[in-house]
Amino acid sequence: MKAKYVIPIIIISIIGNGVNLYNFPLGFLSIFILLMVILPNIFNGVIVYGRKMKSKGYKSILIDTMVDFDAINHSKIIYIVGLILLYMLGAAFMIFQLTQFEYWQNFITINANVLPSFVSNLFFMIVGDILFLASLVVVIMHFRYMFREAPVFQKSNKSKYI
């Protein structure tokens, strides 16, 4: 799955969870999910752009560096461990939300001066959880695509040194 389909879902999760005070920690975690998607795509874009300029015949140290950036071996393990940590933190926040719902509601009522409505708060909490889980599932599909197709994660026979 390409990033242009993944990023809007993550942004909807950030907005949906960030606006709701009950799901604010999940909105915060959604920002890290967004960073996990954007950073490898930036590296991938640099490599593809460097290859395109090199094939057009441009000669520059910047373009040579972009092309040689392909020779650096990027580890998939970092992204896999990051996703596992995000799943664990998301599950911990969801469990905390459900077990401490009344305390959380009292805390928000006292500090945010918001009159709570049990039904609407529970609805928004469940919708936020679904958005967060959907963003995690879509990110896993995106990384399966990236691990197979993107030049960032492909092994290169070139030298690591420029």
Automatic annotation (TrEMBL):
Regions that span the bilayer: 5-22, 28-49, 77-98, 118-140
Record's protein name: Uncharacterized protein
Source organism of the structure: Alkalihalobacillus trypoxylicola
Key words, A-Z: Membrane, Transmembrane, Transmembrane helix
